[in-house]
Amino acid sequence: MLKCHENLKGLYGWLNEKDKSAFHDRYAQQLILEMDLRCDVCGETIGNVRARLDHLSCGHIIHNRCASHLSRSTLGRSNRKRPCPSCRRKSFLDPMCYA
């Protein structure tokens, strides 16, 4: 639903129909607020800005850039993986994949 409203916002913007574009922008922003998706590493709202996302084995979603930060903090520790910052379960992140 969110992607649909973002696409319609862009389409109406391209067609120079500002009222319809603004309507779909407001609707998309409302959906983002209602879902309250936040990166568990940096705390930023997910969906306000287009960004690559990654998920941990527990199902929590984080920014890809935060995944690299999370995995880098485990380098130098023998076979230790940093847990999810939200639920503390062991993550699947391999430090060598993000180094």
TrEMBL record:
Zinc listed as a keyword: yes
One MF term in the entry's GO annotations: zinc ion binding
Coiled coil: none
Protein's name in the database: RING-type domain-containing protein
Signal sequence interval, chain numbering: none
Keywords: Metal-binding, Zinc, Zinc-finger
RING-type domain sequence ranges: 39-88
Keyword match Zinc: yes
